Amino acid sequence: MKQVMMRKFLAGLAALMLTLLPLRGVASAAITTNPIANPQVATASGANPANWTFSSWTSITGANAPVATPAYVTNDGHGDSTSMKVTMTNYDTTYVPGADGGGVGGALTGDDGDAKWIFDPLTVGTGANQLQSGKQYAFSMWYKTNLTGAFTPKVVVDYMDAAGTESFYGMSNPEPTADAATNWNHYSNTFYVPATAAKVTVFMFIDHNGWIQTDDYSLTDYTPVGFNQPLLTLTFDDGQEDNVTNALPLITQYGLKTTQCFETQTLLNQPTQVTANVMAFANAGQEICSHTITHPMLTQINDTQLTNELVQSKAYLEQQLAANHASQTVVSDFASPYGDYNAHVNAAIKAAGYASHRTVDEGFNSKDNFDAYRLRVQNIFNTTTASEVAAWIKQAQADKTWLILVYHRVTTTAAEAGQYDTDKATFTAHLDAIKNSGIKVETYHDALAEVEAQLGTVVTPPAAKTGDLTGDGVVNDDDATILFANWGNNPKAGDIDKNGVVNDDDATLLFANWSK
Predict the structure, then answer these.
(1) Which of 112, 216, 285, 402 could bridge to 365 as Cys pair (CB 3.0-4.6 Å)?
(2) What is the pLDDT of residues 415-465, one digit of tens each?
(3) What domains appear along the chain, each with residue ranges and CATH number?
């Protein structure tokens, strides 16, 4: 089982999924003023801003440990002259592809830790201007940073229960502009307060060499703008072989349609057996979705590798579907490995011909926050109960939002289930909750079409050109390199005429479209 999620970014995220969703209860008072104390950090407490705490951690010790340096800035702010800054130095990480064997997967190795400024946690209760359990809120802030490439700042909500135990909710990543080091960028997102939360705070953190500067925090009430009806989509990542025998019969028994997102290196390594698994899902009316070739961290690979991971996984799955006469012929939807993306990766996803991108960012998709290339989800862990699934569905039904669930492997027994797996008994209980809720269940593709029709923003990805194996919009030497590297191999990239072999016929098609 390949490594899942970046350990630094999502170290605390897995623990959160218990009791995350709020339940609708007694109507409560709205927030009338910003509940964050000293939101523009204009008031000092000694050498630091009042009501704010600097925090950092690392397991590295000695001279090689990362160094986090806080600063209370008094000559540069958003709307005033004050702000907060964190600088990280001596942070050393390396991306290692295929860290879990077989060339599949990837991980960051080396240093760990992060640094951030945190505002005083807000109390969850029924008092005036307190956060209310079961309500949603809009959070915003302004920031500057010199991190705009593979490593950008991240934002999480930190929930504390009555015993002080923390759990973390991963919000969508900021996407800093190219001039973010000199000009203030705005970040905004939404979150909800689970029934178990006693206190809540939100922070942006840095986990790489560089700096972030933040200011002008805000928290307000939030009510999502719903679609015509609530929707639910079940997605499965990686193409685990267990799912054919453990998940598919149950999915069929309950009369549901799901979306299966495959990383294709496994298929190429075992073409007969595993391709049969793909077709088992396709022939049962389940959607086939791309999840790259080798499951890398997309922000950590070069542009040539990125294009290849996106384009060739799509082409290979489409080739298999066409060769086996499936009703689905186009793979238009994509799910990123580890939920690892940035603005550059999203641009590449669009250029590769995908109509959407499903992340692992937590939340619900509504009219007012909808982005086809940053679709939000609820992640399923081996601790996720049927009552949690029912609560998520209840929230989606109340708000008429689109709820996407992310599963991985469905195992025979609970003893076999890793952190991101679900055993058959638990999965059956999830399906019971789904069926009993009455919510409309659609594939990723069909639900996307339904909500985009309401928005009037249906995405039409660029059409691929015959012979454009790299997906860069032209047919040239780069495509020829891919073709001839796979000459005669079956099935491989370069089989332009889809006859199962790469040969002169494909070369003819490639050169006929040279640079068109």
Answers:
(1) 402
(2) 999 999 999 999 999 999 999 999 999 999 999 999 999 998 766 665 555
(3) 13-221 (2.60.120.260), 231-455 (3.20.20.370), 477-512 (no CATH)
Burial code (b: 16+ CB inside 10 Å, e: under 16) for 428-462 equals bbbbebbeebebebbbbbebbebbbeeeeeeeeee
What's the angle, vertex CA 499, arms to CA 496 and CA 504, rounded to 5?
Answer: 60
> For 126-182, what is each residue's pLDDT tens digit?
998 899 988 889 999 999 999 988 899 999 999 999 999 998 888 898 999 999 999
Neighbours of 310 (CB within 10 A): 26
Query: CB 103: neighbour CB atoms within 10 A?
Result: 14
Contact between 146 and 213 (Cβ < 8 Å): no
The tokens describing 301, both together, are 């690979």
Nearest to 194 by CA among 387, 440, 54: 387
The pLDDT value given to residue 2: 38
Query: DSSP alpha helices (H): ranges in 161-200?
Result: none
Structure tokens at 121: 């946690």
Write out the two tokens for 510: 């490639």
**DSSP H helical ranges for 137-262:** 242-246, 248-253
H or E element, residue 430: helix 424-437
Whole-number Å distance between alpha carbons of 206 and 154: 7
Whether the Cβ atoms of residue 196 and residue 369 lie closer than 8 Å to each other: no
Which residue from 153, 166, 141 is spatially nearest to 9, judged by alpha carbons? 153
Q: How many helices and strands, by DSSP H and E, does the chain display?
A: 12, 25
- Per the DSSP assignment, residues forming a β-bridge with 192 are 136
